[in-house]
Amino acid sequence: MALVISACLIVAGIIHLLPLPGVLGADWLNRLYGVAPGDPDMLIMMRHRALLFGVLGAVMIGAAFRPEWQGLAVAAGLVSAAGFLALAWQTGGYSPSIGRVVAADLLAVAALCAAAVMLAWC
What we know:
Number of helices: 5
Number of strands: 0
Number of domains: 1
Order of helices and strands: HHHHH
């Protein structure tokens, strides 16, 4: 069961690492999301968002090898991915690029829910 929990954390961690190249600037954000923030304030916020996702992804992958981190990593990952899904659902009308993020976050939520159930049984 420990290997499956680790695998779930690695899957969710990789999904959270995918936006990390957005730290490199507007061109990367455009490739990732189909948006090019023209406003410097928005560019800073989007780049910072990419950085935070990188940190969270690294923590989840680290937790795959550090059982004492797993509960917190699963909780943080679920807040992140499920929160994004709730915002996307509430807002609606998003682009196909954001639709890909929604699909990836659905996978992350499924993996993290599976990990949470297994952690609860251990």
